[in-house]
Design brief:
Diaminopimelate Epimerase, Chain A, domain 1, alpha/beta, 12 strands, about 325 residues, inorganic pyrophosphatase (n-terminal core), 11 helices, 2 domains, globular, binds manganese (II) ion, 6-stranded mixed sheet
């Protein structure tokens, strides 16, 4: 197994997870605010497994499901955590997927009192170990890959729907099997998921090649303003609310645009700055080997992975941009 945890301790960890799940009646399965492919895919896969062993399951989300994930079987069962919905919710156990800390869950966080047993499954570097069991594997490509390993240990036989959900989780979190985190085991698991009924062409078409004209126009506008800094080592893209208005696109249409920052030869790091309001921006950061963008994001209270991170900056876009460029200057010029 590709991880920092020994084979023996992972078996012990799986046994403890299994015991807690066995003892549970109703299980909350939650992931992070503004769910992505890994979040939604692993939530659906885990819920399907829990249903298969006759557990009551509550699937929640905080934030909209991007249109490209609406094809996922059962995705309509992930309920938005409105205050009214949460008021009537009862569960004794929670499986928290892909959340470095409890804040990242969003509104459902307020229901995790001390009576709830928490399983924390994540692959972020900076996970806060908030669960009764904490299974953190920062070497893993995705939580989807981790959940597959657990299912394999359990001997759970994967349906085509679960295979589709996990394939989506792994494919999206590896940038289509391209990131450094993509191991031989990742590809082996992907192969097993295809054997279990995942359809790579269908899934890829749904997620990457079903864009609306408005979203394509937004990509065009953003690329038209592309910038290179530090002798072409840093690529910067910027999205303003004006661009959204002019194209008729919505903010979810910007998901994936960060990928363009590493398309250019010689670029070692990418930055995508999205205007959020007059006084705040969201920044996504990417890098190739050797450049730790998680530490740059951490300057603003954000985080993520060594090569992929994000943060919110409470400043107007121009000021936020200057602050980010200054930090990258330290990286590239050794200031
Ligand atoms: Mn992930």
């Amino acid at each position: 197994m590709n991880n920092a945890i020994s084979e023996k301790s992972i078996m012990q960890l799986f046994s403890r997870m299994n015991e807690i799940i066995d003892a549970a009646q109703t299980i909350l399965v939650a992931s992070h605010i503004d769910p992505d492919g890994d979040a939604l895919g692993t939530q659906l896969a885990f819920a399907a497994y829990l249903h298969s062993i006759d557990k009551q399951v509550v699937l929640v989300r905080d934030g909209e499901i991007p249109d490209k994930y609406l094809f996922l079987p059962g995705v309509e069962n992930i309920s938005l955590t409105s205050p009214e919905f949460l008021a009537n919710l009862n569960f004794d156990t929670a499986v928290i997927l892909e959340c470095p800390d409890l804040k990242r869950i969003g509104r459902a966080n307020q229901l995790l009192d001390s009576s709830v047993r928490v399983l924390n499954i994540d692959h972020h570097l900076d996970n806060a170990d908030f669960g009764e069991v904490n299974w953190i594997n920062s070497a893993s490509s995705s939580v989807g890959e981790m959940v597959y390993e657990y299912f394999a240990w359990l001997g759970y036989s994967i349906t085509p729907e679960v295979a589709t959900a996990l394939f989506t989780a792994i494919m999206t979190d590896t940038g289509r099997f391209r990131f450094n985190s993509t191991s031989a085991r990742t590809l082996q698991i992907a192969g097993e998921l295809v054997a279990a009924g995942a359809k790579p062409q269908m899934i890829t078409d749904q997620i990457y090649f079903s864009m609306q004209p408005e979203a394509m126009k937004l990509v065009g506008k953003i690329l038209n303003e592309i910038e290179y800094h530090f002798n072409g080592k840093l690529c910067v893209l910027t999205m303003t609310n004006e661009m959204l208005k002019a194209t008729g696109a919505n903010k979810h249409d910007s998901e994936g645009i960060i990928d363009f920052t590493l398309f250019t030869k010689g670029v070692d790091a990418g930055l995508f700055i999205k205007e959020h309001s007059d006084s705040s921006v969201k920044a996504s950061l990417r890098s190739r080997d050797g450049i730790n963008v998680a530490s740059i994001a951490a300057h603003f209270g954000g985080g993520g992975h060594f090569n992929a991170a994000g943060c919110t900056i409470e400043h107007p876009i121009d000021k936020a941009r200057d602050m980010l460029l200054k930090l990258f200057e330290e990286v590239f010029n050794g200031v």
